[in-house]
Amino acid sequence: MAPASVPSGLESLYNVNHLSVEQSLSCCGVFTTYETRKEYSIKNIKGQILYGAKETTDCLTRQCWRSARPARFKIVDHTKKEVVHMRRPLSCSSCWIPCCLQSIEVSMPKGETLGSVRQRWSPIRPLFHVINEYGKTVLKISGPCYIQCCSFCNCEVHYKILAVDGSKIGRITKLWSGVFRELFSDSNNYDIKFPPDLDVKIKAVLLAACFLIDLQLVK
Fold this sequence. Notes:
By secondary structure, the chain is an alpha+beta fold. The longest helix has 17 residues, at 200-216. The protein is 18% helix and 34% strand. A 12-stranded antiparallel beta barrel has the order 1-2-3-4-5-6-7-8-9-10-11-12. It starts with 17 loop residues before the first strand and ends with a helix. It holds the Pfam family Scramblase. InterPro entries: Scramblase (IPR005552). This is Phospholipid scramblase. May mediate accelerated ATP-independent bidirectional transbilayer migration of phospholipids upon binding calcium ions that results in a loss of phospholipid asymmetry in the plasma membrane.
């Protein structure tokens, strides 16, 4: 049982140390260049679905801006009730331009801030700061070099979750989905691992970080 201090709707994240994020595969997105709305199932280590996530961005925005697009995500529980809202503003998708870096904001449906993820500029690898509801950096995320991020080799891609002192406490892993899916779709699956006693609000923000990483990989 989650304590009363856990925000309503986030109880399923309490004492959890592993999440699987599985993205739905759209046939339209495979055989055409049409950019579909992203949809995900979020599961625990037992394979039980905890939440569903759906992008609500309109069609024109998705086609015009692709990986740089402003995006919104609704996270719903098993009753289809919205429990978390995520908003990513229009941003630059190039690692060579240090302005308009990527970010995503996380809040409760009624507007209560949970935190945010903000990219830090680097020409070598993706770097992000995980920021709590008070604007303080509490974690960092360090990805592999950009060449590995864009490779189609048979391998997993790991993003290290670091404490502010640089010690590793978890990771976000982009799983290998097979040659066909890697080459012809933007549909990716992820594993997220973190300490079970991590604040549930920050766990929700790390889930948003996973979505932000996935948007960067849009072809």
